[in-house]
């Protein structure tokens, strides 16, 4: 999970599908 903490809000939903 190499995503900034500022994008964890929107990326959290996309990162969960990626993993």
From TrEMBL:
SUPFAM superfamilies: Zn-binding ribosomal proteins. One of its GO terms (cellular component) is large ribosomal subunit. It holds the Pfam family Ribosomal_L32p. The keyword DNA repair does not apply. Signal peptide: none annotated. Keywords: Chloroplast, Plastid, Ribonucleoprotein, Ribosomal protein. One of its GO terms (molecular function) is structural constituent of ribosome. GO terms for biological process: translation. Belongs to the bacterial ribosomal protein bL32 family. This is Ribosomal protein L32. The gene is rpl32.
């Amino acid at each position: 999970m190499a995503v900034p903490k500022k994008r964890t809000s929107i990326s959290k939903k996309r990162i969960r599908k990626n993993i």
